[in-house]
Specification:
It is built from 16 helices and 14 strands. The strands form 5 sheets. Strands 2-8-7-6-5 form a 5-stranded mixed β-sheet, sandwiched between helices. The chain has a 3-stranded antiparallel β-sheet with strand order 9-12-11. It has a two-stranded parallel ribbon with strand order 1-10.
């Protein structure tokens, strides 16, 4: 008999969670103004809002927490983090930050100015927010295949090279401070970028003398997909693949709350010493001294250890396998999801799930609220709310993909929880024709509105 798959870890500690009643959830979501971010954690049974900072750290990571050096300058924890980053990514210079959006803030303060253009593959919310806050523009150059959720394409995160070159050709070099490659590409469904595409983007960028930075929150998951899907990489280790990936970049930003499996932390990696030194001023202004950058020593130790664990094949096979397990359950139920399944989450195609709702009624947010009411499962909208308004016209932007994301925390839930999620969503799918009204905005912030927006039923 072939031995079945088993997780590459065992449980050492548990946390109790409580199932609420439908009546309680109806009251709570109304009090939260139909914004799932406003729910209290004890009002949620299975929390798939994000995979950022929600993972379970290992025994070795907790041990490293006890060894944290909290010296303001010159801490040994800084050296551990520096060595891990250098060994795994190959970048000789780095600045620690408290999380990924802080890394973006420091980097973009250094190199982006009003009127600039930043091409990339489906920039995520904070990335686009930081760009537009500086009166610059993000230009999406993702391949068209990414926007067909039924299409089985191995690397839907790839950049369309013709689109990218069109941007580079039609704008002066001085207006394009960088190209951003997001690995994996969250907004298109947690989809990976191929090594072939990274190399081609790098060559194109060199032709026009534009630096390339990777948004690297899920770089290890991207490397796993390259290993199992791309010709020539099956026999390479994850770390060998990662080093080649980053060889095609001039720098990186990292929210370490994802693939480094920590609750807080991030960094910027640099190849160019001059740019590193320029960014240092902003890091000290916004984050803290360059040897801690908004992090404690214990967090830096856990992050360094997490980078090693997060680039182990057995761990990645377990983690991505669980995401695929949920995806296959939903697909078998006939529920429309982005296919192939992403690395960190399953993305439900809300337009195909609720085709009767007009786009103005916030289709993916409506679906996410319905899932919460059904089973206490909290997902998140990746659609119209997240897209914000056009800064020029003030009109809502309606993205091609209107998705509900079910982001799976690392090493937290069992496959029984995945079965529960699938059953809850199937129950919503069974009664989808009864969902005839969506949601509308009552109050919103001018940027990154989805975090604090207030909604009501149409």
């Amino acid at each position: 008999m072939k031995l079945p798959f088993a997780e590459s870890y065992k449980t050492k500690m548990v946390e109790s969670i409580r199932r609420s009643t439908r009546e309680e959830r109806e009251k709570w979501i109304q009090e939260a103004n139909y914004n799932l971010f406003n729910l209290k954690s004890n009002q949620v049974f299975i929390d798939l809002l994000t995979d950022s900072g929600t993972g379970a750290m290992s025994d070795k990571q907790w041990s490293e927490m006890m060894l944290g050096d909290e010296s303001y300058a010159g801490a040994s924890s800084y050296s551990k983090m520096k060595n891990a980053i250098s060994e795994i990514t190959g970048f000789p210079y780095f600045l620690p930050t408290h999380q990924g959006r802080a890394a973006e803030n420091v980097l973009f303060s250094t190199i982006i100015k009003a009127g600039d253009i930043v091409p990339g593959n489906s920039h995520f919310d904070t990335t686009k927010g930081h760009i537009e806050f500086r009166k610059a523009s993000a230009v999406d150059c993702t391949i068209d295949e990414a926007f067909d959720t039924t299409l089985d394409h191995p690397f839907k995160g790839d950049i369309n090279l013709e689109k990218l070159e069109g941007v580079l050709k039609s704008n002066p070099k001085e207006k394009i401070p960088l190209i951003i490659v997001t690995v994996t590409c969250n907004s298109s469904g947690g989809q990976p970028v191929s090594m072939k595409n990274m190399k081609a983007v790098s060559q194109l960028a060199k032709k026009y003398d534009i630096p390339v930075f990777f948004d690297s929150a899920r770089f290890a998951e991207n490397a796993y997909f390259i290993k199992i899907r791309e010709d020539g990489y099956r026999d390479k280790s994850i770390r060998e693949i990662v080093l080649e990936m980053f060889s095609y970049a001039d720098g990186m930003t990292m929210s370490s709350k994802k693939d480094a499996i920590v609750n807080m932390g991030g960094f910027i990696g640099f190849r160019d010493k001059g740019l590193f030194e320029k960014a240092t001023m902003y890091n000290i202004l916004f984050e803290g001294y360059i040897s801690y950058g908004g992090m404690s020593g214990r967090d830096m130790n856990a992050l360094a250890q997490g980078l090693y664990e997060g680039t182990e094949f057995n761990y990645l096979e377990t983690r991505i396998g669980q995401v695929a397990y949920l995806g296959q359950k939903l697909k078998d139920f006939g529920i429309p999801v982005q296919y192939p399944f992403g690395g960190h989450a399953i993305f439900v195609d809300a337009k195909r799930f609720l085709p009767q709702l007009p786009k103005e009624q916030l289709v993916a947010q409506t679906l996410a609220v319905e899932l919460y009411l059904e089973g206490g499962v909290r997902g998140v909208e990746i659609g119209t709310l997240l897209a914000d308004r056009d800064p020029e016209t003030g009109e809502n932007r309606y993205p091609e993909l209107e998705l509900m994301r079910l982001a799976i925390p690392r090493r937290v839930y069992s496959d029984n929880h995945m079965d529960f999620i699938a059953a809850a969503l199937f129950n919503v799918f069974e009664r989808k024709e009864q969902i005839t009204k969506g949601l509308k905005i009552v109050e919103e912030a001018p940027i990154l509105r989805h975090f604090t927006v207030k909604l009501e039923k149409v």
